[in-house]
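Many introductory courses stop at the sequence. We go one step further.
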Amino acid sequence: MPIKPLPPPNARVTDPDTGLMTQDWYDFFRELARKSVTALTYGTTINTNTATGDNFSITATNGTAFTIAAPTNPVAGQTITYTIRNASGGALGAITWNAVFKMPAFTLPANGFSRSVSFIYNGTNWVQRFQSAADVPN
């Protein structure tokens, strides 16, 4: 079966959830991506491209400390959420948040649990809006 080319950027598509016509196919797929969770690559530095979505998960597989770098491609007013899962088999390594994150201390989840934290971008910094009050099972 031949691959069909994408329609022009201004072509309208129907949202399968609502049955309504969206602005264009590019916006439709961007919004679809925002509804899903993007798994970020775990390592000593974790990078986030906010053009790929609003919900991100990090699964720590060892006790090594890591840094969450300043997100790229932010839009003023955008909200993002990180869910940090501890699958290390023990204590989670320390997390260093880039200075663009304005937040109180983040409580690390115990092994087998996760915690989430949400931020809104004010054009300069990511200001915390929410943080899990307790561990949530993975």
